[in-house]
Amino acid sequence: MLQFRNLTRAYELGGERAGVFGVTLAVPKGCLAVLAGPSGSGKTTLLQLAGLLDQPDEGAVLLDGQEVSSLSERERCDLRLRRLGFVFQAFNLVPVLSALENAMLPLQLQGIAEVEARRRAAAALDRVGLADRLHHRPGQLSGGQQQRVAIARALAPDPLLVLADEPTASLDHAHGGPLMDLMADLAAERGATFLVASHDPAVIARAHRVYRLADGRLVEAA
Ligand SMILES: Nc1ncnc2c1ncn2[C@@H]1O[C@H](COP(=O)(O)OP(=O)(O)OP(=O)(O)O)[C@@H](O)[C@H]1O
Ligand SMILES: [Mg+2]
Fold first, then answer.
1. Closest CA to 45 of 221, 217, 220
2. What does the domain layout of the chain look like in residue ranges?
3. Does the keyword Transport apply (predicted)?
4. Which of 21, 80, 125, 152 has its CA 20 to 30 A from that of 162?
5. How far apart are CA 49 and CA 153, in angstroms?
6. What is the CATH number of domain 27-54+71-221?
7. Which residues, chain by chain, have CB under 5 Å from ion ligand 2?
8. What is the CB neighbour count within 10 angstroms for residue 185?
């Protein structure tokens, strides 16, 4: 369960105030939730707070009931590595590493032994339908396949929470829906919470829950 409790993060720039203001929401385990809203409405700001990459001015982020936004930098970093998964618009794969090596990286950073990391990364790649592409490098994969490697990498450490910022934006239209279907299935079978920022209608249509933002405020939750 991911909770935002009255979350505010304000940016002051040139006399203008932007950011997110007083956002409260709760996304249960197994749920694929989408943060929707126009450009500048605060989607990425909220994902960064949820991902413990940034800290709120007011309010709190809770994971499974524990307040995590006020932990020390070291504790947040540790939690990020072990229990959070990140999927980015531009995939952020390491070009000289194979799909398998990319998916192994976060496990090896945690100190998991190579044999075990290899086993878990291969299982995650198999789950996203890439069992026959383990040794391809990102440049040898299609955009949709690269995004599935990124999902396998996020999934391999068995995260509580997976965060994705515009994960379909670099894909052509046909790939967006299936990618979301995969994430919905993964959220349910892993009991993880998925939080995706997007303004893609194909993405929003497949969400279990949609939170709409406007000017940094939550204006609709459905
Ligand atoms: N580091 C920063 N300094 C100042 N203002 C910022 C900063 N980061 C974001 N903002 C402002 O906060 C608001 C929300 O930005 P955010 O990136 O969260 O929007 P978004 O909904 O993700 O937009 P997009 O759909 O274009 O990605 C915007 O008005 C933006 O200009
Ligand atoms: Mg954004």
1. 217
2. 27-54+71-221
3. yes
4. 21
5. 21
6. 3.40.50.300
7. 43-44
8. 12
